[in-house]
Amino acid sequence: MRDRLGRVIYVGKARSLRKRVGQYFQSTRQTRWDPKTRALVESIADIETFVVRSEAEALLLEGKLIKEFKPHYNVLFKDDKRFLLVKVNPREEYPRFKFARLRKDDGARYFGPFAHAASVRLAMQWIRKKYGVLVQGSGAPKAKDLKYSTYLVPVPLKDLPREEYLRRVEFACAFLNGQNPEAIAELETQMRDAARQHQFEKAAELRDVVASLRDIARAARERKFARDLRPKLDRQAELADLQRVLGLPVVPSHIEGFDISNISGTLSVASTVCFREGLPHKEHYRHYRIQTVTGSDDFASMAEVVRRRYGHTAERPDLVLVDGGPGQLNAALSALHQIGVRLPVIGLAKQMEEIHLPDKALRLPANSPALHLIQRLRDEAHRFANAYHQKLRQRRIQESVLDELPGLGPKRKQALLRRFGSLARLRQASVAEIATVPGVGPMLAERIHRFLA
Hints:
Layout: H1 17-22, H2 35-43, H3 55-69, E1 84-88, E2 96-100, E3 109-114, H4 117-131, E4 134-135, H5 143-146, H6 162-176, H7 181-196, H8 200-229, H9 235-246, E5 254-263, E6 266-276, E7 279-280, E8 286-289, H10 298-310, E9 319-323, H11 326-338, E10 345-349, E11 354-356, E12 361-362, H12 369-401, H13 410-420, H14 423-428, H15 431-435, H16 442-452
Parallel strand pairs: 2-4, 5-9, 9-10
Antiparallel strand pairs: 1-2, 1-3, 5-6, 6-7, 6-8, 10-11, 11-12
Helix pairs in contact: 4-8, 7-8, 9-12, 10-11
């Protein structure tokens, strides 16, 4: 949910968004609202939705968005606490399964993230009993660890060969990857037997363990599904196909792409992204604020940014891609001609995904490796330009918040932003710190502090 300034003020999730969102606008409920809910509803100006595949994925996305935007009306997830991971380091003499919140490049194997921490902790207790592996702790096994055994693994760790222990660790890892459905079926049978024998406490305990293990299996399936969706890229085949399709003299190992972003001609910006050997080379990414063009003129903006990019550097790509059709292509070619630079340039038009060359247009089949490569480049240029545009727009929106405070003119506003750098830092400042800004006395500082609180 966003307010009239475009700020995210609340993030929520629901199986049925119609029911969840609709309850905020039912007049019969208004009398039962608390002050916080009333203020939230009165602030809503726009609603944005995302559709995901499962409740666990919805919970993960909700937490991510709340951490990113820190909405005023959300309480949960506002800290920096991350979702739970399980890690095991195979280089340890007796590898232990531990809980973590942050994935590090430390040689360990990580499983997760898991949205329901309680389920994972309960499942790890069962894994310890089932496979006899160590959970938590660090270093060499302690005396109590060496004596540890369970009814499922009656051999104490001190009598268990290391090779056998490592084999059990692999079984536990396979389970965390969702590769042992037989264990859940076995527990369900035990749960039903306990219920028939009126051992209801044991049945309830087994029920909770089964639910926890299902959560882990579901998370593993979702991770595998996400991995399977990633296409297998043959970058060399894509580059060779692009050279053949365009008739280039060399394989286009170095490609640069351009895109323009604006809204009704305001805050016009441009991006340049670079691919080397078919992969993003972010050290050569650049963004630009359009300086010589007034209003919405993508052609003139494209000409400006191409001149600025190649007018002051001797490095030349093997191919230049502009986002757009003949208009953007001709603008780029004209700019290169003005600065005396010759480069192969193509345009990619979104509507029909046509490739525009100076003398013709090509329409490649949807499974073309060359088309896939330049689509990725075009989409990356679009993403980078939009990200920069949104950053500038958000900065302007935040600065405009101060315009609503009576008695604070443009000079004082600029003085405040120069001193503190951003609205977020100004919010954190004390009254005394605000009062040190030239032109802002103690009384106005107190009003600003209350206004931003």
